[in-house]
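Revision sheet: structure tokens.
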Amino acid sequence: MQRGLQFGLLLLAVQLFQQGLGNIPAVTLAVLGFNVYLFMFPAAPLMKACVSLHYVYSLKEWRRLFLSPLHHVDDWHLYYNMASFLWKGTRLERRLGGAWFLYLLSVLSLLTGLVYLLLQAWLTKLIQEPNPLWDLIDASAHSSECAVGFSGVLFALKVINNHYNPGGVTYLLGTIRVSNRFASWVELVLIYVIAPRTSLIGHLSGILVGLLYTLGPLRIIMETCAESVSSDMNDPRPSTYFNFSGYSGTRRERPQHAEDRTAEDRTAEDQTDLDRMTEEEQIELAIRNSLNDRGPTRRRRTAQPPSGFHPTEEEENLEELRRRRLRRLEEEFYNQRRRRQFM
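Predicted:
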């Protein structure tokens, strides 16, 4: 092994032990370890693992779609990707749960490769017509490149993580303050400017797949597939019911009408559900209930303002931000409970 290889792995090991192996969720740690293992003992040479339109579509080497995200060019490529995955994976796995996060990683890994092939085919067609822009971004090189690495999946995870943390900011290069809403796009350009040899198409494909999950139909399709698999397994687990005016999820062997349940039953069932939730989920639930409690009072005050009262622009912006956070929290809790039911 070369000295550079040892140094890259050493830095990654130091970062892992600084965070503490016990503080890293199981799926994140396993996927990271699997990437390191395949770097040390690759399943195929890089030229047999990389993905490109020529090899995958023309030569029908479809296995490259599965090998490409798990192989890296050198130790620094592995280090930067895994250090980024350690942070993103830890946050998302704690939010989504291990089973769903593993499911999500599998789908993202495959889809980023497929979208990469579509973008490469589209670019190959575009460069047939002369355009100064193609020379500026070296389009001919991108249309024929063969890419490996986990960075496409990381860009997808970045989009999803930013979706779950609206209103936040990201500091790129430690100094550039960018809203989470645009951070992925700014990072895409910065990485290409700083390191032109990186795969612009691979990173772009990750952003597009992330948007398919957060804004498009991908999440709905995944949930439908998970529900179908769960039904096929004839899982006897009881159903879960929801009331978005306030959390009241229950688990029972047979359905029971809400009016037949006593206040003590509802309190006991709510406490049972709280016991199943993580500390982070309980905090978010408390925030959402607080927003719900404040909501009607604010709406009444807004509906019947005193004579001559006009809310300031700042007050209107705060109220709109509160409503958006409430809708997002409701959506997250609904999806989390559905995933637990499916898995």
